[in-house]
Amino acid sequence: MQRWSVRERRSCRPCTGWAESARAPWPPHWAATRTRLDNPVWWIPADTPADLEAGLAALAAALQLAPVQLPPDQLAERAVQWLGTHHGWLLILDNVDDPGHIKQLVARADTGRILITSRLSSGWHDTATPVPLDVLTPAEALALLTRILTSSGGSPDLDGAADLCEELGYLPLAVEQAGAYIAEASLTHHGYLRLLTDHPTEMYREAGEKHRSEQTIAQIWRITLDRLTDTPLAGQVLRILAWYAPDDIPRTLLDPLGTPPEVHRAVRRLAAYNMITATDGTLSVHRLVQALARASDTTDPHRQPGDITTALHQATECLQGATPTDPADPRDPQSWPAGAP
């Protein structure tokens, strides 16, 4: 059996559907050649155990494995039994939040292929083989935007499209969200960029009519931070990091925020959910994640205006604390690594 856990790095969204899993080497061609009922390709939202059970029950109903009047848990069991005794199927478990929720299914359904998508970057060692996904390349982002704009016919004006993709950090969800909005509003790319600059709070949560509202940049951000509420320092750290350059931020800047275990826990959990990228000495944050963290939104508990203002002050204080007492004095070598370009 082959099992992959696909995750998108340095973004605030889960991998969902073929838009992301297509970056893995095998699924599109493999799935396209297996469309018969005895070789099903089945997608299940797997955020929670209840979602997983409902998806398996729906599979049992689609395969007519049992009367649909049976309780969901019994239908789900019939589906698992079928998967464990048949070959050639592909099961997509989307947005798994805890590897433990799917371990039993993966162990029992070992005769087909399972593709798991998740925001989590750790915890897969005994469940699946992780396949990290980075942001799109500039060419891929432009191709995605063009495909969205041409889906309803016509030849769109691509002036400014490359600049827009760059501003969006080449995140698939952001490009998709922007493309849908531009197509429906008949905007130019420069016009959308102006809206994004002048009204970031509204635009990050604004979706096209056919775009699921729960799959906007702002909503995915909120869902992820909701799952980190048991580590309050995590949100604070992210809001502070939003005020620095996106890459190579010295981890020592965060030392004043708490005890070493507290700071390490906040950084570790943010990295586990791919909100930041952590190395031994530095941190990186995607520019769009930073932009969201700086855009106040009274409807989002993680982006309250007062918290963002406080984060700006804390970011300044942390930077000042790391600055040598006399920057003109080169005799303080301890300050060189943090201040090096």
TrEMBL record:
Gene3D superfamilies: P-loop containing nucleotide triphosphate hydrolases. InterPro entries: P-loop_NTPase (IPR027417). Residues 316-341 are annotated as: Disordered. PANTHER family: NB-ARC AND TPR DOMAIN PROTEIN (PTHR35205), ZU5 DOMAIN-CONTAINING PROTEIN (PTHR35205:SF1). This is Uncharacterized protein. The lineage of its organism: Bacteria, Bacillati, Actinomycetota, Actinomycetes, Kitasatosporales.
